[in-house]
Specification:
By secondary structure, this protein is an alpha+beta fold. It has four helices and six strands. A six-stranded antiparallel beta sheet has the order 3-2-1-6-5-4, sandwiched between helices. Helix 2 runs antiparallel to helix 4. The protein starts with a helix and ends with a helix.
């Protein structure tokens, strides 16, 4: 793990430990993640509510997709399949729900407690093939930390 990823995870752990109010914890995590990597153009957390992924908060341009049914788009697919999904080029994936014409790649990581989906982390980039194994590890470990506070 790179020093940058380790430092970001430590900042997230500290924020989750220092803040007691759940909504503020999640806002802080999104803020830390959005600043952690230069290729993160849009960063958000969706929480599962009655079978729908509901946008809790985000940093980046507003999205028309504040509620996403399980199974719809990349976000809904990641929740349904309970697995992370990396899309190197969203223009080549018909499942992608366009939020911004500038978006070129996306990574979605479910927040799981065992096999139960609690929500997910969604990150978009204006660069093609912007996400690597470091991003996947950072976001999956962050999802695990979030699951403990939900």
């Amino acid at each position: 793990m790179s020093r940058a990823v380790a430092a970001t995870l430590e900042a997230i752990r500290e924020a989750l430990d220092e803040i007691t109010e759940r909504d503020e914890q999640l806002r802080r995590v999104v803020a830390i993640l959005s600043k952690s990597r230069p290729n993160y153009t849009w960063t958000g957390i969706y929480l599962l509510d009655a079978g729908m992924l509901v946008l809790h908060n985000q940093i980046g341009l507003p999205t028309p997709h504040e509620r996403i049914p399980i199974g719809q788009g990349i976000c809904g697919l990641a929740a349904r399949e309970r697995r992370s999904i990396v899309v190197p080029d969203v223009t080549r994936d018909p499942r992608y729900l366009a939020c911004s014409l500038a978006t070129r790649s996306e990574i979605v990581v479910p927040i799981l407690r065992g096999t139960e989906v609690l929500g997910e982390i969604d990150v978009d980039s204006d660069r093609l093939d912007a996400f690597d194994d470091e991003d996947l590890r950072l976001l999956e470990e962050t999802a695990g930390l979030i699951a403990k506070v939900l």
